[in-house]
Each structure stands twice: as structure tokens, then as C-alpha cells.
């Protein structure tokens, strides 16, 4: 019986730790595309900090419902990309984080887009892609999902702690 309790405790602790581990201007900088278009240089040798936004659970239908192949129309693909990405512009423009590469990994996973599609199709100016026309509603919706997920993680951690105290 004690071995069963220890195994349950180990599994709950592992789940809690795994959950914890996963847990600037009006433009998207052109450097956002470096992760998807392939970049050369020293960035591979420099460690990047983990992105505070969890892109795994974002709603990608904004892009996947409008940007469809085989032609991938630039106007629809770029407008939907901006609608999705602009709420995260401060995180994506941070070159010291892995936010841009993480976001593009999930965009390509859910949309099965050819590599570099958005980098080659979406053109901005010297500052990058404009985010001025993106609604505030999109920002609130994008951040709301992350807040709800953080609350759920805190609840799971609390329950694991209580179960640990109960069986210890």
C-alpha cells in the first residue's frame, strides 16, 4: 500500500513540475521572420529565454481559415497573420526570447504551411509589419487564454500539494 502511495505521489509531482515548466511599438519587427525563414549567424550559439506566452493553446483558426493553399493568397494570409500575431508584438519583437520561433512552429504545425511562407509573402516597411489596424478585442482574447491556463496550473499545483500532504 505504501508503494502505491509513493508511486501516486511521484506521478502527481512529475505532472505538477511538467505543468510549471510549460508554463513594443506598433509594428512586428522583420526579425520575427528569422526563425521561420532560416537565419545564419551566432543566434544558434546564444541561449534564448523561454517565451512567457504559451503558443500551444492559442486559437490558430484565425490564420488557418483564411490562409489556404495551394495558392496562399498574400492579402488573406498576411491580414490573418497580423490579426493573430499583433497582440503578441511585444513578445515577438524581443530577440532575446524564443517567442517568434515557437509561434511559427505552431502556425506551421496547425496550418501545414510551406517554410518561409509568411516571410516571403508579408512585406512591411523599414519598421516591419504594421499592427495599427488590429483591434483591441484580439489583444484581450489572446491574453485571456493564457491567464485562464495559468489559473488552471495554479489549481492543479495546489491539489497536488494537498494530496501530497494527505498521503505523507
Automatic annotation (TrEMBL):
<feature type="domain" description="GPI-anchored protein LLG1-like">
    <location>
        <begin position="53"/>
        <end position="129"/>
    </location>
</feature>
<dbReference type="InterPro" id="IPR058888">
    <property type="entry name" value="LLG1-like"/>
</dbReference>
<protein>
    <recommendedName>
        <fullName>GPI-anchored protein LLG1-like domain-containing protein</fullName>
    </recommendedName>
</protein>
<feature type="signal peptide">
    <location>
        <begin position="1"/>
        <end position="23"/>
    </location>
</feature>
<keyword id="KW-0812">Transmembrane</keyword>
<keyword id="KW-0732">Signal</keyword>
<dbReference type="InterPro" id="IPR039307">
    <property type="entry name" value="LORELEI-like"/>
</dbReference>
<keyword id="KW-0472">Membrane</keyword>
<dbReference type="Pfam" id="PF26578">
    <property type="entry name" value="LLG1"/>
</dbReference>
<feature type="transmembrane region" description="Helical">
    <location>
        <begin position="150"/>
        <end position="167"/>
    </location>
</feature>
<keyword id="KW-1133">Transmembrane helix</keyword>
